[in-house]
Amino acid sequence: MADQELQPSMSSSQENAAQPQEQPVSVSATQAESSAHDDFDWSIDKKHVSTYSPEEWERYEKTYEKTFRNIEENEIIKGTVVGLTDSDAIIHIGYKSDGLVSLNEFRDMPGLKVGDEVEVLVVEKEDRNGQLVLSRKQARLLRAWERIVEAYKTGEVITGTVTSKTKGGLIVDIHGMETFLPGSQIDVKPITDYDQFVGKTMEFKVVKINEAIKNAVVSHKALIESDIEQQRMEIISRLEKGQVLEGTIKNITDFGAFIDLGGVDGLLYITDISWGRISHPSEVLKLDQKINVVVLDFDDEKKRISLGYKQLMPHPWDTLPENIKEGARVKGKVVNIEDYGAFLEILPGVEGLVHVSEVSWASTPVNAKEFFKLGDEHEAVIVTLNREERKMSLSIKQLTPDPWENIEEKYPVDSRHKGIVKNLTPYGVFVELEPGIGGMIHISDLSWTKRYNHPSEYTKPGEEIEVVILNIDKQNRKLSLGHKQLEEDPWNTFETIFPVGSIHEGTVVKKDEKGALIQLQYGVEAFAPARQLKTEDDHTIQVDDVIEVMIQEFDRAEKRIVVSHTKVWEQRKHQEREAAHKEKKAEAEKTRKAVKNVQSKIEKATLGDLGVLAEIKEKMKQAEEENKQQKPDEGDKPAS
């Protein structure tokens, strides 16, 4: 209620005083004015407004406040439409002033009229212009969020309208608030056309909320799954193992097919589709095809149902034709390859194993994954057949005669043949004489004179090589071959050419910390220990150096020769010292004989003769001393 202004009426004397005086005032008139002035209520201010006492102010304020409602900002409150303009609705909420709300916020109420009650949010009790600011839109959003949060907590199903399509899903209006419906949550089956749902009113379940930004995610799929789950539980409760059901193929994958059993899905694994091997279920099944299946197993907790299709048909092993027997020739397709062999399918669901040992008569191992290819067809002989255990072994090599039956006649010991190098190992060379027949040349049988660290130093796979049959092991299908045996053993002759103590010239072909390999004439190789490679001038011997060596050891049985370079120059020095010693000894003997001859001719000695004699004796003495010094060297002799 507005403050009341008091308008006291003026007295007649005041009115007269306010008008200009045309005639002089008399004394009696002056006295009358003085009396009126004394009677005037001077509590009236200059604006002609009376003032209240503090008690009156307090009383009036309390009476005034009782006529209004107490409101707070951000509070949702009910108001009444008290007026409508072309653009706004005037809302009375029982406050000291009314608020304006744009008609755009009432688009969901096309029949809005004066007297209608609506909920609004108090945005501001008083803006900078002193006006009350209200919002129906914000009130609706806040109420909608409260309902969505409550539905999320309680799991309540809510209704909303799909308003538009967005990236990855749809926008759903729930109580005036936009929520997000992901594409994966529209239905249990994949949806590609989102436009078909725009404008539809559907039921949803709130699956996720974000309080900070007031955002919610809803799902229609969750409601469908809930219904399906009830049907599923009902169907599973009636399931039994071995039960035959009719179903429709709803999806085909690499590992199997999903069968709709009327509200619940079962999985038909690829291994349970056919008794034969198939690479993909689509080879037998088609989408939307109706088939009978048998329940193999089901799990109440995991809610999985395993189905079988081939189990409704007889097993091929039970109807195996009589002509499938041991010794019969059959054709089959390679359906599986392992390290130990390959499986051939000779009939759908009937397989036999070709072991790697049954591929070829050759003793060299066969790599199954290189020999066989999936899908290839091979002819084979049935070796063993067990109908009860459903096992069969096959052989490819038995399609041809066994070449080892008459091996002694075709490849007798000491006979010579040519073959192809098939494989090399650190200890020998595998040679194939013909398909299925082969043997090994030991590395020591490659050469009489040369020692090889590896057969690759002599030959390589694919090369032709001549061999001699050394031994036949028919039971183990092995031949021992030789190559050096094509020539006579030269070591009988080498023993006379390289006797111990003889000196020869050789070339250093290899050297390491243990010693050096020396090649002598005729291609013979000898070994010189490191301590026997010391030179006279301390020069280091290198590979390709040509040096003299002395034969220290000759072992014919082991085909080994040990030589020394050091012994060569040590022996030469010893011989030189011995020759010098002999020369000095001969000269001393000659001098001694001369002196003796002179002494025999002298009959009398003279002083001069004595002087000459003394000189000769001195020379003899020196010769004797030198002879003594040479005697220790006489024990030095060349090592054998």
Automatic annotation (TrEMBL):
> Pfam families this protein is in?
S1
Q: SMART domains this protein is in?
A: S1
Q: Could you tell me one molecular function GO term of this UniProt entry?
A: structural constituent of ribosome
The record's section on Gene3D superfamilies has:
Nucleic acid-binding proteins
Q: Where is the composition biased (Polar residues)?
A: 1-34
Keywords for the protein's UniProt record, in alphabetical order? Repeat, Ribonucleoprotein, Ribosomal protein, RNA-binding
One BP term from GO: translation
Q: Which GO terms describe its cellular component?
A: cytosolic small ribosomal subunit
Annotated S1 motif domain ranges read: 74-137, 155-221, 242-310, 327-397, 414-484, 501-566
Q: Per its UniProt record, what InterPro entries does this chain match?
A: NA-bd_OB-fold (IPR012340), Ribos_protein_bS1-like (IPR050437), Ribosomal_protein_S1-like (IPR035104), S1_domain (IPR003029)
CDD domains reported in the protein's UniProt record: S1_RPS1_repeat_ec2_hs2 (cd04465), S1_RPS1_repeat_ec3 (cd05688)
Ranges for the region named Disordered are 1-41, 572-592, 618-640
What domain of life does the UniProt record list for this protein's source?
Bacteria
- Family that this chain belongs to: Belongs to the bacterial ribosomal protein bS1 family.
The protein, known as: Small ribosomal subunit protein bS1
- According to its UniProt entry, this protein's organism is Thermoflavifilum aggregans
